[in-house]
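FAQ: What does a multi-protein file look like?

Like this. Sequence, then tokens, then the next protein.
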Amino acid sequence: MTKRNSLLKLAAATVALGLLAAPAVAQRDPAYSAARAAGQVGEKMDGYLGIVGAATPALRAMVDDINIRRRAVYAEQAQANGATLEEYAFTAGCLAISRTTAGEMYQAPDGSWQQRGAGAPQRDPRCP
């Protein structure tokens, strides 16, 4: 099994456990759900949550908290699997973008924010 396939399987397992898409606390946070539904936040290619448009202090604090939690998970999983933090986070970002649903925002390979339609999202060609 290649390192990329191994990272993909590990990142998928992390997503399935709810550790990637949004930390468990954030998933229960009505502010996170509302921001996601309103298109104020979206999944970035680097594996982190991003702010789409203007940032309020509350929105920035929420996104920063989620990203700190994600980074901790990525660092732990990367170290356990002989990958760099960046490799693991990128793979996790590919998976998070692929798991967005219609209406949610995500970062396209050109760096622009896109709203997910009924079809597949645009993904970086390096995505596994």
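And here is the next protein:
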Amino acid sequence: MNDKEKDLEMQCGCEHEHPEVVREVRAAMPDENVTADLSDFFKVFGDSSRMRILFALDRRELCVCDLSAALGMTKSAVSHQLRFLRANHLVASRRSGKNIFYSLADEHVRDIIEIAVEHLSEED
């Protein structure tokens, strides 16, 4: 099937709207501020370095040195990404003496990652 055939297949064959369906969908839609916040939230996941850090932290709590070694990144690059992830409430930190250990902020972050991986692993 070529692209033109795929486009035609995706088009609706009806010539009119279904007002009751449109009302139902509009009533269920979140506020535009919420959708903008969601869009910004998912942009955080749009960087492979940040995703690798999140995967590592999904495995266990780690310090910057261990993250750097595990991911083959500089400490500076890891620290930069951790600041970004903390600012977006995806990563938490804990101080133990001179060391700071990082972990996923909560189970929701773990769930988002696991559901996304599961979705991408599905066969069509």
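Q: Is there any per-entry metadata?
A: Some entries carry free-text notes. For the entry above: Strands lie at 62-63, 91-96, 99-104.
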